[in-house]
Specification:
mainly alpha; elongated; binds protoporphyrin IX containing FE
Length: 116
């Protein structure tokens, strides 16, 4: 059970890597919202929700921390959706939306690692 949980953490990290990696590529380029960013968020969300249940561990989960991460993830999802819509209509993503996606992704990774 513990090894399975570690495998789900690995999938969660792959989601984070895909979302943040795809965003960094765009930050250094055209500053667009891409399908890979959506895919990374979906992978991180599904694996994160699976990890939010207390299986394969012998300690209590910090539900305030997990709830905070869920709220941040929902905001990132909203920004991706709004940004993709603006990109379709106006041809570009407003800078606040583009940079917000990267900063909030980093914030969630920071919360995961630094909030103990
Ligand atoms: C963009 C969104 C997210 C990012 C970047 C992210 C990032 C991370 C990272 C880097 C870790 C590993 C931390 C460590 O092992 O020290 C982690 C673990 C974890 N994340 Fe997330 N996360 C995100 C969303 C979520 C969501 C939405 C949930 C749940 C609703 C969640 C629940 C968890 C849990 C429970 C763990 C601990 C796994 C364990 O050690 O058993 N995450 N996350």
């Amino acid at each position: 059970m513990e090894i399975l949980r570690h495998a789900v953490v690995l999938v969660h990290l792959v989601g984070f890597a895909v979302l943040f990696g795809a965003w960094v590529v765009e930050a250094a380029g055209q500053r667009r919202i891409t399908r890979l960013q959506h895919l990374g968020l979906a992978i991180a969300a599904v694996a994160g929700l699976a990890l939010a249940a207390p299986w394969g561990i012998e300690y209590d989960l910090n539900y305030i921390k997990i709830g905070t991460k869920l709220v941040v993830l929902l905001v990132i999802g909203a920004l991706l959706g709004i940004g993709a819509g603006r990109q379709r209509k106006a041809g570009s993503v407003p800078p606040a939306i583009f940079w917000g996606i990267g900063l909030l992704t980093l914030l969630n990774a920071g919360i995961a690692v630094l909030w103990r």
